[in-house]
Specification:
Layout (H helix, E strand, L loop, with lengths): L8 H34 L5 H14 L1 H11 L1 H10 L23 H4 L8
Helix pairs in contact: 1-2
Length: 119
Amino acid sequence: MQELKKPSKSDNFLKHVELISVSIVALSLWFAAIFSFVWILFGTGGDQQTRLARVIKGMNVNWKIGLLLLIPLFYRTVREILERMEEGPLGTKFPNPKVPKTDTPDSEEETRPTIGQEK
């Protein structure tokens, strides 16, 4: 079983930066969605159908921005995968999942085979 490392200062700093950036992205997306919805219902510049068409056209033209916004949202997942990786990209292998040990030897958790092991 692998020992857990104590997180360094840079790890803590990156976690704070990630938390702040994900929060800003999420709040911005919520604000944009609510603003667009309210503008479609109550805005000026034509009827509701015209405003809805403008919003959909704007989303269709600017869909690549959504891909850029996904980067900070999946940063933690990708980082954890890269930390667990044991081999290179073509022969990618991950360690077996950690199974907690208990005091009783006949525990189901200790005798259960992990991924990649046979009975």
